[in-house]
Specification:
With 1143 residues, the protein is of the alpha+beta class. The protein is 49% helix and 10% strand. The N and C termini lie far apart (85 Å). This is AP-3 complex subunit beta.
Amino acid sequence: MFPQFGATAESLSKASSLVLRIGTDAHLYDDPDDVSIGPLLDSRYDSEKVDALKRLLALIAQGADVSHFFPQVVKNVASQSLEVKKLVYLYLLHYAEKRQNEALLSINCFQKDLSDTNPLVRAWALRAMAGICLHAVAPLVLAAISKCARDPSAYVRKCAAYALPKLYDLHHDEDSTALEELVDILLSDHSPGVVGAAAAAFKSVCPTSLFLIAKSFKRLCETLPDVEEWGQIVLTEILLRYVIARHGLVKESILFSSNSALHSQAGENFATSGDMLDHHHHHHSVVDMACDSNMVTVMYKSYIEGQKESFTQAGCAKGDDDKLDLPPLTSSTNDDVDILLRCTSPLLWSHNSAVVLAAAGVHWIIAPRKEIERIIKPILFILRSSQASKYILCNILVFAKAAPSLFSLNYEDFFVFSSDSYQIKVLKLEILSTIATESSLPIILEEFQDYVKDPDRRFVADTVAAIGLCAQRLPMVASTCLEGLLGLIFHESSISSSSQLDGEAGVLVQAIMSIKAIIKHDPTSYDKVIVRLACNLDRVKEPAARALIIWIIGEYCSVGQIIPRIVPSVLKYLAWTFNSEELETKLQILNTAAKVLLCTEGEDLLTFRKILSYVIELAKYDSNYDVRDRARFILNLMPRNLTSTSEEETTSCFLQNVGIHHEFAENIFSGKIHSTASSAKSFRIFLPGSLSQIVLHAAPGYEPLPKPCSLHANDLKLRMELDDETKESKKMAKDNSFGAGDHDASSGSSFEESGSVYDSHHSIISSDSEGNEITSESNEIGHSSLEVMHDDWNKTLIDVSDASVDNDQASPSAKGNLSALISTDLAELMSKSALESWLDEHPGLTSVQMSQQPPSGRISINNLDCTVTPKIHTLLDPTNGNGLRVEYAFSYEVSTISPVMVQIEVFFENCLSESLVKIALKDGEYTSRVDSSDPVLEEHESLLPTDNAPSMLPTEEIASLDPGQRLKKVIQVHFHHHLLPFKLAVLCNGKKNLTKLWPDIGYFLRPLSMSMDAFIEKERQLPGMFECTKRCTFKEHIDHEKDDSSFHSDKIILISRTIASKVLSNSNVFLVSVDIPVSFNIDDASGLCLRFSGEILSSSKPCLITILAEGKFSEPLDIAVKINCEDTVFGLNLLNRVAAFLQ
């Protein structure tokens, strides 16, 4: 083409593709590693970093391993460029699980980004933290989600909702109360996008906690049309489950009004409550829409009990399906039912087929029967316009089987197209055979005649089966269907005998099976059909088809007057062709001969005996063992007089009782055929719109509907109480937000017990917006301070001070400031304060305050003379160490060699009767580190806080250890992280035992001596994200109280000494003070407060621990632990450790 221009079609195609790629990043996939990525990552220009990161992601997309760039990528996580930050987050999410140590180092950057002014950065940081699947960061992720759930940006709150399922998957075995509280807050959001994401989180985290929906059910229903499509699906299911669990099923729904048994029981249930059903209206609805009562019963069981339980009960209780234990029902006039139906009606016309089916499922289950017709047009519309036809047809099939008349007028919408797949064709055939009526059946059968000519013989066989189903449903057209099926049989027989085509045998067999099913309903009316089949038996060559015809002849051998006359000729013909028949035909000939003999009396009896004996004799020597076994079985089962062939034996034995064998033979060969009326029980039914309805088994995550009225009033009452407390706390927060600027009004050491749902047993990081909530019994604005005067801290051991200020004695200046604030522009004030408080730019109160009114005074003690006993850990037991026991305890001494070294006392004990020699401790990773040839090893090591310190200082080898001798050695170890173990190799007698030395975060501190004034001042400097709290229960003081030695001790001193001893025995900290309220009761420990201080070894950052006790002496105490630390990761992990050893 155009040779004068020197261009070809191929060159023009390449040129056009290049033009389309201009301005895109597609060229990175051609040769993404054509440049040196390392120098670009270290560049000071963001554009070069972006190019390098895009090339890394292109390599990841192609399956390449680029994890060796992890240290260089991590350094760019603090970049100010949004594009760089986004690409770094994508890279970190991919390799975080593989490079756990380095991923932990980026957590602090994520924490800083959570306070960024750009909501996109905050959302990216949260997504990255939630995507790092490490158990060590799970508490931090929970704190971040708690913070972002209150973010001013709806997009950030939406990301927080999507992060909840990831966190739940990370530690789903733990208590999920805190996650449920977060879901509750997000469900109460006013943004439709956040509500949709919260619904997805609810389904993953707490799908059975339906009481969370109670307070906001109406608002959720009204928000439903504005939620995104996939959120609408989940939220619709949740709201439906809540209605059923709260109020039960609707008495006017199709599940009850169409079934006489269910309806009568429902009427009895309502009679007890004085709400009877209008029987006249019920009669009118039955006329309008005929339903299959058996199918509806099975559907009710499957929806409520689940498919497995429904099958189990159906197999155990035969014929008791009508006796169901129905729960109390509700009416369609119920407010919750009515609003849910009204709010889901617009969803019926959604462009998303899944949304349409979800809304249709709600109307199908709880809508009044007269209103179900509104789902017909939307479903048919989406069927015509959607590509997911199979998904829609599977649900239509269930609707049609339960209420065939629902789609009976729209049968033309289910005609098969040539472009339909085989699965869709089969579904349409089954629907057509289900909804066919007397008026529409002629048109449907005419359509079926075209389907029979289809080249796909498998589809033709299904069409023949559909014709048989139509004849069974409508007996008045059975004769017409039988004529067509007989003609098809003779046609297929001639085709199969002349040429063997694929699928012809299946069509022939299916036609005979359809005839067999039709005959079974009324054999006497179709005796001529049986005769026609018998007369054409020699024309049918297919073994399976011949076996079916022989079965029909044997089953109905005594029906009518014509069939008994032709049976002898047919049996003689079969006996003559026995040796040339196939296996299944031979077995059926044996069965038919036995049936005929049992049903025959009179002059033909001798003839049938001879035929049976002849056939059995032939079968005895058949090459197939199944045929031989069947012959022996019949010979031993049939009475001797029936198998005898002589006339004398017959005359002498005919009147004799043939005994139990005769009864067995009649039950086996001449027994009644079981009815197929219970075929609906075997039909698998699942909730409309679910994946399980497509795959026809319970897909992962599928749950049936909750038990009706299973949402107890106690759960709702508890929910309402929590709601009232939350509203009260929000009101107080609103009142106190005007005085948040008064920095002197807050105490850094106070504890809070508010009605917030975040006051749980899980650790949280409280933002400043939470801290501004002051517990107060009055509505007036007041300030209470607990300022303690310590003039001579080092001179006195005990100080008594009076520091209470009543709320009613607020200064006039404070009230004046309040009036000035109220007069300002409220909208501007709230928007600005909300953002500033969330970002912790202006810290207010702390996150934990006193649950009771401040006492009038207190006693401060800084010396309890408590006993400190370090905990002994087992490093190597004698069974694994060949008689050597190695134990260790963390030392309180601080290493003088390096600040990152932890000093540990190791105890060696010989448990054998002979000496152990050459005992030493070595670094377990030393050999692998020396032999490693990883090119990025130095970069990997540079990211860790090594401070140029070795992993473990070498120790002297123990030459010999005598039997029973115990020896102590002091080692200094550098743990790369306070949660990751250190691998050790214990050498003894020339053998090496590998073990792990687990760190204790409490000994990554050194005591930091300070006064209480300095403690409170430092605590005020670390609010918001640097503060975390957790609650636990303390019981150890109860055992000490029962001890005789402590009988005369002061109980409050005993509890203080017990708690302090527990803390000091498990961590290397300094006891700052113990505050004891002066006005305490004789049996009340409420208000007891202990303060500890320490300093992180590696960073020298202060770490403050505050413990507040509430409760009585004789009962377990409710302990609230608070950590203030600039290193948030360290603080959270230390908080969990302190709560664990106090628990």
